[in-house]
Amino acid sequence: MRIADAQRDVRTTFLGGFAGQLVSAVVWASSAALATWGSTRAGIMALVLGGMFIFPLTLLTLRAMGRPAGLPSGHPMNGLGFQAAIALPLMLPVIAGAALYRVEWFYPAFMVALGAHYLPFVFLYGMRMFGVLAGVLVGAGVALGLYAPPGHPSAAAWLTAAVLLGFAVLGRMLVGREGLREARMGKADAPMGRMRPRA
User: Fold this and answer.
1) Cα–Cα dist 124/139, whole Å
2) Span 90-106, pLDDT tens digits
3) In sequence order, what DSSP letters do the residues of 73-106 get, joined into one string?
4) 46, 75, 108, 184: most buried by Cβ count inside 10 Å?
5) Considering the domain boundaries, does residue 86 fall inside one?
6) Does residue 42 belong to any structural domain of this protein?
7) Rounded to whole angstroms, how far apart are CA atoms 34 and 28?
């Protein structure tokens, strides 16, 4: 299988990351709401615990949409997908260290880790969009960590939820356009095929 074909499989199966980023946006928004109207500790726990269920909830969302819940067994991109998925949980000790030093750094540190986690998606999906998403999250996380006024730790969580939702919609739009373009090319080729002389 060619790399481009494998990447197209990932794009079409996961709708350009739509389901995963939609679920992630809901988890981040829930965490932000708890941190805003409850306590920072509750928001942190919601994000850490909710994050553990993002992948199964993504597969459930795909099934609810009537789509296959993942790539077939033996697909060449399964390995990279697994590595990208476990990268973020492995960064939790670094995030925890930042939060123990200064609790306002929890969400910005998580944003930086989340952005780094999205970098392999550029190759996995064959979409440069994920490079932009990674840059936005890392840049915003660093800026908020350095310059955000104290007393508003949930601002980074709200921003992350909005960014993830925006890129979820963008990913689905890009994959939808790709599908339409391929369908049009197929229709354009069909009449030509019928006009070819028979052997």
Assistant:
1) 22
2) 999 999 999 999 999 99
3) TT-TTHHHHHHHHHHHHHTHHHHHHHHHH-GGGH
4) 108
5) yes
6) yes
7) 10
Residues 56 and 42: their CA atoms lie apart, in Å, by: 22
Q: Which amino acid is at 38?
A: G
**CB neighbours of residue 59 within 10 Å:** 17
What pTM did the predictor assign? 0.87
For residue 58, how many other CB atoms are within 10 A of its CB? 22
Most distant CA pair in the chain: distance in Å?
77
Measured distance CA(19)–CA(32) in Å, rounded: 20
Convert the pLDDT of each residue in 103-127 to its tens digit: 999 999 999 999 999 999 999 999 9
Range of the domain at 19: 3-68+79-178
The answer as to whether 112 is a domain residue is: yes
- Measured between alpha carbons, how far is 45 from 30 in angstroms, rounded to an integer? 11
Residues 190, 195: Cα–Cα separation, whole Å: 9
CB atoms within 10 A of CB 5: 10
Give start and end residues of each alpha helix (H) in the chain.
3-13, 18-37, 40-51, 54-64, 78-90, 92-101, 106-118, 121-125, 129-147, 155-195
| Cα dihedral: 143, 23, 81, 180 (round 10) | -100
- Distance, in Å, from the CA atom of 146 to the CA atom of 27, rounded to the nearest integer, reads 24
Neighbours of 198 (CB within 10 A): 3
